[in-house]
Design brief:
The structure holds two protein chains of two kinds.
Chain A lengths: L1 E7 L9 H6 L2 H15 L4 E6 L7 E6 L2 E6 L9 E8 L3 H10 L1 H4 L3 E6 L4
Antiparallel strand pairs in A: 1-5, 1-6, 2-5, 3-4
Chain B lengths: L1 H23 L2 H22 L5 H19 L4 H7 L18 H8 L6 H11 L5 H7 L4 H18 L11 H20 L3 H17 L4 H14 L2 H4 E2 L2 E2 L12 H16 L5 H12 L6 H15 L2 H14 L2 H9 L7 H13 L3 H13 L5 H16 L1
Antiparallel strand pairs in B: 1-2
Helix pairs in contact in B: 1-2, 1-3, 1-5, 2-3, 6-8, 6-9, 7-8, 9-10, 9-11, 10-11, 11-13, 11-14, 13-14, 14-15, 15-16, 16-17, 16-18, 17-18, 18-19, 19-20
């Protein structure tokens, strides 16, 4: 099975928001960096791309042929996706265990595990 | 013959379905094939007699029906390829080819990636063999709602890759707790008066005790359910709820109490001390003629420590009231943060009544009454209030 792990940053601090990031202790910051590195090096993981802050998002809709753009993400700001990765695993339990290791999951964010449709 | 068929259904449904799911890797197909096998049994057994080994017969028939269905249905061609390897020809299966997979099925049905409602429904459907309509009735929802819930749950198991296995050691404690919670929830749903559902929970409890004989909490849960169920007949008199202290002990099922205590002994022999074992130990003490209130209060203390639950503290207060008096109990109750929990009000009301603080007791009972759903419990509170008024 292939799973997409959608990382919702929530209130979890990232280096992209220096103010919040600096509030973490040096050890906490290092742990976050180490954890993400360990995850991307886990067999079966294909690292995704890191996304810029949700505030930078533009949401596009098309209504009657007209393109409508709105400032901000489709979801609420704090529910927006901050990153993702793909994990090839035997079953959901393995994906849940990996998701639980994503720092955002313990820092006020959440990880959504979604199976990837394979034909 | 109808009885023989019904008995075969009850005894073998879960096991046959579990084996088929393991074999096919597909809930729906396995369910259809198992249903087919039982339908064929209903036609043939009255004519040809019950086979020597009904389970092997059902397994063989269900598997052959599944293979038939796959061959017939060209849309399922991809699955048929999966089936070609080991011995997919139509013949009698050896039961050794079909190990008991009920535990794997139970852990899949009670996977935390499913909602608790879905876990309960799926467990009753797959292991209990209850029909969608029966489950819908038990949980007071429309048939279509329940059917949808089951379809969605089965689809998620497949699409999300929920494993069909007994979880490894590092996941087992949490997962087993989830399974036990589902079984106990089913039991409590039935304990409110729907006897078939309670019986189903007892069956699941017995099967678990057989399949996981070394897990103390499994025996603890079985003991707890048996000890509660033993008192079921005495809980109601003319449809009115009778509290434990007022129950006619001669209406308790002595045989079931003995079974419950035997299960509790096994749990204790395995050094069990988890929440179900503790609750079973308390239920066992409650079944004694002379209640050992200090011991009951001590066990509630331990249960409260293990669970951190203020509801348990409330129960401890009730036990403390019996041996130290209502004043000591009231001190415990006053410390609890239980919001508008109706049993907090009814317990406090009862303690105040015993302390002769009638008007305060009345206020608490009225609060409890306003939070209670219509039914036996509400009528009991109304009676208590009337008694209080009669005494003035």
């Amino acid at each position: 099975m292939k799973y997409m792990l959608l990382i919702h940053q929530g209130t979890a601090a990232t280096p992209r928001s220096p103010g919040e990031w600096e509030k973490l202790s040096a050890a906490e910051r290092q742990a976050v960096i180490d954890d993400y590195r360990a995850i991307t090096q886990t067999p079966g993981v294909t690292a995704g791309l890191q996304l810029a802050e949700p505030e930078t998002a533009t949401t596009v809709r098309v209504q009657d042929g007209t393109t409508l753009t709105t400032d901000g993400p489709f979801a609420e700001l704090k529910e927006a996706i901050g990153g993702y990765l793909v994990f090839e695993a035997e079953h959901l339990d393995a994906a849940i265990e990996l998701a639980a290791r994503v720092p955002a999951a313990r820092m006020g964010g959440a990880v959504e595990v979604r199976p990837v449709v394979e034909w | 013959m109808v009885a023989a068929l019904e008995q075969a259904f009850r005894a073998h449904w879960g096991r046959v379905l579990a084996a088929l799911i393991a074999f096919l890797g597909d809930f729906d197909l396995a369910e259809e094939a198992t249903q087919d096998a039982f339908a064929i049994a209903a036609q043939r057994w009255p004519r040809d007699g019950v086979p020597v080994n009904p389970r092997t017969w059902l397994l063989t028939t269900a598997r052959n029906r599944a293979i038939d269905r796959i061959r017939r249905d060209r849309k399922l061609a991809a699955k048929a390829r999966l089936l070609e390897p080991p011995g997919a020809k139509e013949d009698t299966v050896d039961e050794a080819d079909f190990p008991d997979e009920r535990l794997e099925l139970l852990f899949a049905c009670c996977h935390p990636a499913l909602s608790i409602e879905a876990q309960v429904a799926l467990t009753l459907r797959t292991l209990g063999g209850l029909s969608t309509e029966e489950i819908a009735r038990a949980f007071l929802v429309a048939d279509t709602t329940m059917a949808q819930r089951l379809v969605r749950a089965k689809r998620k198991i497949k699409a999300a890759g929920i494993p069909f296995r007994v979880p490894p050691a590092h996941l087992l404690p949490d997962r087993l707790a989830a399974v036990l919670a589902v079984v106990y929830l089913i039991f409590n749903e039935g304990y409110g008066g729907r006897a078939q559902v309670a019986a189903e929970a007892l069956e699941l409890g017995r099967a678990l005790a057989e399949l996981m004989p070394d897990e103390p909490e499994v025996h603890g849960l079985l003991a707890l359910m048996l000890l509660h169920d033993a008192r079921a007949a005495a809980r109601f008199e003319d449809d009115e709820l009778v509290l434990l202290a007022d129950q006619d002990a001669s209406r308790w099922d002595a045989h079931e109490i003995a079974q419950g205590r035997a299960a509790l002994d096994r749990a204790l022999a395995l050094r069990g001390g988890g929440p179900y074992v503790l609750q079973a130990a308390i239920a066992s003490l409650h079944a004694d003629e002379q209640r050992d209130w200090p011991q009951i209060a001590a066990l509630y203390g331990e249960l409260s420590r293990v669970t951190g639950s203020p509801v348990v503290e409330l129960s401890r207060a009730v036990a403390v009231a019996e041996h130290e008096g209502p004043e000591a109990a009231l001190r415990i109750v006053e410390r609890l943060d239980l919001g508008e929990y109706r049993y907090l009000h009814s317990t406090r009301g009862e303690l105040l009544r015993r302390l002769g603080r009638g008007s305060e007791a009345r206020r608490e009972l009225e609060l409890a009454l306003s939070g209670s759903p219509a039914g036996a419990e509400r009528r009991l509170l109304a009676r208590r209030l009337a008694e209080l008024d009669a005494r003035g």
